[in-house]
Write a structure and sequence with these properties.
InterPro entries: LigD_pol_dom, MtLigD_Pol-like, NHEJ_LigD. By secondary structure, the chain is of the alpha+beta class. The protein contains 6 helices and 16 strands. Strand 1 and strand 2 form a beta hairpin.
């Protein structure tokens, strides 16, 4: 098995020709290549945060599992932090703070990277608001785009500036940077806004968790602001039939989307988008853009 050195760390790479996405023939080596060239864009969104992984060691059509604790054999140079749980127990979790850790994780077929809306150093403070727009049966991401514009304007009325990305699955995520907030307060606020939009647009929006209520509507999942919840981090690959990516969007792309294919991006597309347009979600990282909850 080849051994490579990344930022002074020796990493043993394995099964680089293993096909992780049978429908497209995409290999683990291609996954590592994507994460290597996207590291500078991706890492700022997960650095300092406890991460959870979706692992698919035998490919996306095989067994998959959601891993929060560090995998067996985690090198001692991989940084971890202790995450408080509801029981009072502290649970160790990996932080992806550098390229070496990202490459080590990708080599373990950690296809997806998920993060909470708080930093490990301050788990009581939410520095991001997130709403997951999920299309119910009969709706698509294009319907999510229409609702995203309503949500953007509603947040702006409270002084919160929002930016969008694809989930890499079926819908969209809207983020707004926060200052001086906590997870419970962020959850309450997101729920209240989702309920307001449901009352104003009952034929398009639903805010309740019941799946039966989502037919022909877009579900605004406000619950991912909870301290115990995570969201697919920007630029993460998703373990779907194709290697899709959770991709930042410009608002004019949201406004003009005419079909789901317009917002379907894979590991083959995203590096070129980044080179052409820069990081469209970068304002989320700017402390000057953060605002308090109303």
């Amino acid at each position: 098995m080849p051994i490579t050195e990344v930022e002074g760390r020796r990493i043993t790479l394995s099964h680089l020709d293993r096909v992780l996405w049978p429908d497209t023939g995409t290999t683990k080596g291609e996954l590592l290549h994507y994460y290597a060239i996207m590291a500078d864009a991706l890492i700022p969104y997960c650095a300092g945060r406890p991460v959870s992984f979706v692992r698919t060691p035998d490919g996306v059509q095989g067994q998959r599992f959601f891993q929060k604790r560090p995998p067996a054999g985690t090198p001692d140079w991989v940084r971890t932090s202790e995450t408080p749980r509801k029981s009072g127990e502290l649970m160790p979790q990996v932080q992806v703070n550098d390229l070496a850790t990202l490459m080590w994780a990708a080599n373990l077929a950690c296809v997806e990277i998920h993060t909470p809306q708080w930093l490990a150093a301050d788990p009581g403070t939410a520095d991001r608001l997130v709403v997951d727009l999920d299309p119910g049966p009969g709706r698509t991401v294009v319907d999510c785009c229409r609702v995203a514009l309503l949500l953007r304007d509603r947040l702006a009325a409270d002084g919160l500036h929002a930016w969008a990305k694809t989930s890499g699955s079926k819908g969209l995520h809207l983020y707004a940077p926060l200052r001086g907030a906590d997870s419970e307060g962020a959850s309450r606020y997101a729920r209240r806004v989702a309920q307001e939009l449901e009352r104003a647009h009952p034929g398009e929006v639903v805010s309740t968790m019941a799946k039966a209520a989502r037919e022909d509507r877009v579900f605004l999942d406000w619950s991912q602001n909870s301290r115990k919840k995570t969201t697919a981090t920007p630029y993460t690959v998703r373990a779907r039939s194709a290697p899709t990516v959770s991709t930042p969007l410009a608002w004019d792309e949201v406004e003009s989307a005419a079909s789901p294919a317009d917002l379907d991006f894979t590991i083959a597309d995203v590096p070129g988008r980044l080179a052409a347009h820069g990081d469209l979600l970068a304002p989320l990282l700017d402390p000057a853009a953060a605002a308090p909850l109303p």
